[in-house]
Fold THO complex subunit 7 homolog.
Amino acid sequence: MNDEEVIWRKLLIDGDGIGDDRRLNILLKTYLKWCNTKYTDPLESQKAMEKMLVHLNLCEHAMKKSQAVSRMNVEEMLMYDNMSSEIDHNITNTKTEIDRAKEELKKAKTIRRNRMEYDVLAKLIIQHPPRTETAKRLDDLKDELQALKMTKNEINQKLDKRRKQLHVLMSALNDLTDSLDDNGSMSEDMSYETFDDEDLDILTRKDDVEEPMSD
């Protein structure tokens, strides 16, 4: 048995219908019966009229109920539309906030990476002395270099002087050797005993000067 057969049987069993339709049909039949019936007893007519009023009140109540339900349905539809609009608005705002949060996260990552690079550079800078100290150290080294150059010049001047003195001494020795050879009083191997104190002092100073220079 399908649904159509079930509905058809219900209509056959209940010829007046169901629900509000049944009330209206009963009210209409009662009204027609009351109009077509000639009551001899006013009480029976009054009872029939009261019965119609009861059905009428029930129909009015059902109508008001249907109107209230319809109005409530409309209000619910409006409420659901508003909720749907609000949900769509919230979804849009949420997407916007998510995009903004992504941008902020990207910026935060960039800032963090820059800070890490700055920390590395700061550590490298700390390991090196400041520029003023480096400049002062450079000036000190320049002064030391200039002093060393002056010392070198002084030593070179002293060496030149000692070379000249030694040259004079060697010339004097050669002259003395030639003179002694001529007289035959001195052998070819000369000793330091033939030198006077001044000559020995000159040779000693020469050795003292040459040793630091060789170092």
Remarks:
- Residues 130-172 form one domain.
- The CA atoms of residues 37 and 116 lie 105 Å apart.
- The chain has five helices and no strands.
- The longest helix spans residues 42-127.
